[in-house]
Amino acid sequence: MTAATRRPVAPSRDTEGTGRAACHHGEILQGVFLDERRRPVHALVTLPMNGPGSTARFTPRPGSAPDEVTVTPTGRTKARAAAVLAVRECAARRAAEPCGGELTLTGDLPVGLGMGSSTSDVIATVRAVADSWGMALPPETIARIAVRAEGASDPLMHGSRPLLFAQREGRVLEVLGSTLPPAVVVGCALAQGAPVDTLSLPALHHDGDLAAYGHLRRMLRRAVTSTDTGLLGRVSTASARLRQRVLRHEEFPALTGIADGTGAVGVQIAHSGNVAGILFDPRTPGLRHRLRRCTRALDREGITPTRTFTTFASPISEEFPWTNTSRKPSAART
């Protein structure tokens, strides 16, 4: 390529790009479903949660090779891969020469609990790189980059709407509605907050799973449409019970027993981690008393309560935040 035909280089401005991404609290539903072509696809519906998340800052280094990306803290290989992919994507959209840069990640998400910590890092990174180029990439493009960088991705780039999302393909199978039914969730960490390697879990299904998960999909669609919190709890509990075949939680019987004993509508778990929750209908009489009984019962069973939050704006959220170090899960960031 001659000097006369060389494409423009990346923006040389000193202003860094920034990006932010939220997390989730595991899944309401995860399994195998038929897509629009009647093909079995592994997919999930996450439980969104405000508060914790990842923030990324990216400063381009014009003239450097596009794969020359340094990351702080070190070891965030998925975020680094996402930065390189995002740089190439932005450069192609601007018909410019790609370049590397410096990526810095900060956040308050525990790793390996099934809260989408790596996806949050990746999405924040892609948004920061795009911001450094003066653009915003659409969610579908971010999802494609995230799957290439991670191997599988949560649907955090699409916001908090309940979506049936094919995590290994990065595409939405169904938009279930605008928001989940109202619920109060008492979060907790199973297995003392030990991290789980998501990609090491088998992506398997058994005879009859398509019918079972298809039924749960229809139930969840109806729960969202009718804002039925009780039906939401039935779906999440059934999904968690089925998922026990893949990732067995020894505390699961205790968790369901506490839910039954405190008048909760059900339980939910991270299907690829150790975060879990007990779901309550916010219209239940004596709710705050039930929430206190629930956290005490979790403590008695040796299950660490983490935080209480809602699927809607409420002062109940943040009642038991992770900033209370005596209740903080023990999993360390890697």
A few lines on this structure:
With 334 residues, the chain is α+β, with helices and mostly antiparallel strands. It has 7 helices and 10 strands.
What does this protein look like?
- This protein has 334 residues and is of the alpha+beta class.
- It is 31% helix and 25% strand.
- Helix 1 packs parallel to helix 2 and helix 1 packs across helix 3.
- The chain is globular, with a radius of gyration of 21 Å.
Features:
334 residues, alpha+beta, 4-stranded mixed sheet, 4-stranded antiparallel sheet, disordered C terminus
Strand share of the residues?
15-25%
Radius of gyration from the CA trace?
21 Å
Distance separating the two termini: 42 Å
Count of individual helical segments = 7
Query: Considering DSSP H and I runs of 4 or more, what fraction of the residues is helical?
Result: 25-40%
User: Poorly predicted ranges (pLDDT <50, ≥5 residues)?
Assistant: 1-6, 318-334
Number of E-type strands: 10
Q: What's the mean pLDDT score?
A: 86
Cα shape: globular
Structural class: alpha+beta
Instruction: Walk across the major sheet and give the strand order.
Output: 1-2-4-3
Describe the largest sheet.
4 strands, mixed
How are helices and strands ordered from N to C? EEEHEHHEEEHHHEEHE
